Amino acid sequence: xxxxxxxxxxxxxxxxxxxxxxxxxxxxxxxxxxxxxxxxxxxxxxxxxxxxxxxxxxxxxxxxxxxxxxxxxxxxxxxxxxxxxxxxxxxxxxxxxxxxxxxxxxxxxxxxxxxxxxxxxxxxxxxxxxxxxxxxxxxxxxxxxxxxxxxxxxxxxxxxxxxxxxxxxxxxxxxxxxxxxxxxxxxxxxxxxxxxxxxxxxxxxxxxxxxxxxxxxxxxxxxxxxxxxxxxxxxxxxxxxxxxxxxxxxxxxxxxxxxxxxxxxxxxxxxxxxxxxxxxxxxxxxxxxxxxxxxxxxxxxxxxxxxxxxxxxxxxxxxxxxxxxxxxxxxxxxxxxxxxxxxxxxxxxxxxxxxxxxxxxxxxxxxxxxxxxxxxxxxxxxxxxxxxxxxxxxxxxxxxxxxxxxxxxxxxxxxxxxxxxxxxxxxxxxxxxxxxxxxxxxxxxxxxxxxxxxxxxxxxxxxxxxxxxxxxxxxxxxxxxxxxxxxxxxxxxxxxxxxxxxxxxxxxxxxxxxxxxxxxxxxxxxxxxxxxxxxxxxxxxxxxxxxxxxxxxxxxxxxxxxxxxxxxxxxxxxxxxxxxxxxxxxxxxxxxxxxxxxxxxxxxxxxxxxxxxxxxxxxxxxxxxxxxxxxxxxxxxxxxxxxxxxxxxxxxxxxxxxxxxxxxxxx
Amino acid sequence: xxxxxxxxxxxxxxxxxxxxxxxxxxxxxxxxxxxxxxxxxxxxxxxxxxxxxxxxxxxxxxxxxxxxxxxxxxxxxxxxxxxxxxxxxxxxxxxxxxxxxxxxxxxxxxxxxxxxxxxxxxxxxxxxxxxxxxxxxxxxxxxxxxxxxxxxxxxxxxxxxxxxxxxxxxxxxxxxxxxxxxxxxxxxxxxxxxxxxxxxxxxxxxxxxxxxxxxxxxxxxxxxxxxxxxxxxxxxxxxxxxxxxxxxxxxxxxxxxxxxxxxxxxxxxxxxxxxxxxxxx
Lengths: 667, 281
Description:
Chain A is of the alpha/beta class and 667 residues long. Chain A has five domains: 4-132, Rossmann fold (3-Layer(aba) Sandwich); 142-234 and 317-332 and 500-567, FAD/NAD(P)-binding domain, CATH 3.50.50.60; 248-305, no CATH class; 333-498, FAD/NAD(P)-binding domain (3-Layer(bba) Sandwich), CATH 3.50.50.60; 579-649, Alpha-Beta Plaits. With 281 residues, chain B is α/β, with parallel strands linked by helices. Chain B is 50% helix and 10% strand. Chain B has 15 helices and eight strands. Chain B has helices at 8-12, 16-28, 44-50, 52-68, 79-94, 96-106, 119-127, 131-134, 155-158, 168-175, 194-197, 199-215, 226-234, 236-243, 254-261, and strands at 3-5, 33-35, 73-76, 115-118, 142-145, 179-180, 220-223, 251-253. In chain B, the strands form two sheets. Chain B has a four-stranded parallel beta sheet. In chain B, strands 6-5-7-8 form a four-stranded parallel beta sheet, sandwiched between helices. The longest helix of chain B has 17 residues, at 52-68. The radius of gyration of chain B is 18 Å and the shape is globular. In chain B, 49% of the residues are buried. The mean pLDDT of chain B is 94. The chains are: A alpha/beta (667), B alpha/beta (281). The interface between A and B is small, with 9 and 8 residues.
């Protein structure tokens, strides 16, 4: 016989201001099988919890309903209290009188009536609860970080420094990401390379980090603590053990006219190349798409000149399989390029460049050794225009969001230009200046007040070339919306930050969600910003949305802590609120007919095939089987199952019926 | 297939030259153009500023008349009329309730099935395929193709060419032997309806369009809109007075240029009606 205890919480005045808690407790107390119904000001407080623990023993309770706030708030608290009182924690339910009732209604009779109804449903439900045991799964204590930009580097180092193994996968020949391309960084103007390259070296030398560059994730299977990841190591066409990184091959390669990705197409590179002098690892790769040998079948000059005979033209791609416990996606972002903008000439004009190209022009290691020379004729521009929000915050372009980093880097660009070309004029067209961040607004003010950058609030409608000048037509909205025309020598577009190429495919491989812009989605915008909806996979950096370096690094450290917390356990405990396929003795074994429709709809790939075999291995029947490690208890399979063979622990069909019937019946 | 023709007010008034060149091309290429019987005003710029229902009812009646007369396809040479007709079709397709209401207002059945062509689409579809063997006097000039606003905007409704950097007229011009110049003013505002009320604004805006075409070395500005034409051609004395210039570059309808290329006489394509002398033929 069920013996239910009900505890009605006032939540200070949060509930009691609109709900008559005394009446709720009194009414519920009259229900069948309710042996105790009481109220208290703060159930979650220590005395409140003690009340529950003692009542369990005193009244020999078989179920508890705490009528308080949302279970998202305090369910773990009260389940723990019940466990300490000697009751299986899954025999405790919460009736949400706060978010679902007191907060959203006026104080009156009906509100109290509704509160009573909510508690009644839970009383009926808890009578059918069964004692459940948490699920235990083992943990492989090796993390994988996908992406070797600053976010990936920070995450990898932080995890490695907690003593756990890390595998880093980077698809380009070197780690470093976009940060390695930057000249100086806001708001301190410290050199990007100077602060980044030591970190890159640390990754390469860390005993706990295994680095795979020129490699991509092929497939991901499994679940939290137990992923199996296949990685494609693209052929670098050389024996890395023999190569000393002397670079002779790169100087002798006859093919020298390939646009250099690292220089954003503003310089050239050979077919066998090291992306940049500080690359990690500092070993070349052969770009087979452009290599003369792979195109025409002869050349092999690199092989001839190599002093250690390290070149391997016939090297195949290699697929390696790794056992991984947690994954950090840190795949970064890309930017739109000038050819995205018809009004700015579809990339026709050489002297209209994007922000990353300007970084390379301003960088001491860049194609112009840090002298600001325009691409068309190498002249130093005397009049330069920066356009913020090129594409961003522009629904007509399909990019409604703010790219967040552009206001700051545009101020930095204008400042760097003024520091290098003292007599030059810098103009910035902007919509708003979004400089929230430590010392950020001061930085923008410095550009305006000390470096005399001309900030014009307005948009640029068109740019065209005339007399060797770029005519920038815009509007000054602070000057009675007067049209403004500037004859510029060079224009820099702060183009929108967008998801990196291949983001969608990777998200699908990882089974994580992504938004309409292909940015990876966090589990909760405020309270779970580094988690994804897939347990064991975390986010770091601009793969989630455009972010600056401090934000990327902070988030990377956040994700590292999440991984470390996961790895601090030898076994993972999961809520047992998962789906289960019924089983019974032979000859039926289960009512499951093996149609596997559930397998197709399961969003978490949690449904497997299980064969019931005779002793000699003959398959009698194939059944669906839920992988408890993967199942998130969403119930989609339960709703779909045609033979009603699947049920959800904690939310069984019978429990839900009982709740509905309770609402329909008078009490 | 018979193609309907909606001339609108301009082609019977200020842009008779445009009308003459369209007819001359139709005749030369053996194309049948049937003027929509009993056609009315499209509402132009006035109606949609005053009364939304009226601004939709007027073009809807024209389209309904075309449907009634079995004209599944109509060509609308005037860019302003073209815009009104396409916008109406778009609005009524989007909103079936409004469509029923407009049918009531015009007391006619409106289905919205006619295919509406602007002049470039008509040329692309019917003239370009027959063009190569017809060309007797290649139009060997540098041209600045001026699209104006209504031919390509609003892009979402018209779904025609690239709003910021249209190309269709340039492509037609290359087919008759012309060399289009890189012309950034191709969609800048000419002053439009201010032609009547504020000639100073038209002079200022149209002057820039002409100046840049001359600067780029164009021998002629090519247009496909009566309003653009009257601002750039008829208002030339005002423009030259405003800018203290002597711009002489002629402004030619796309259909006139094609007519010249196939050997039609300047009179036949209406060139004699221009205010700015066309010396290039």
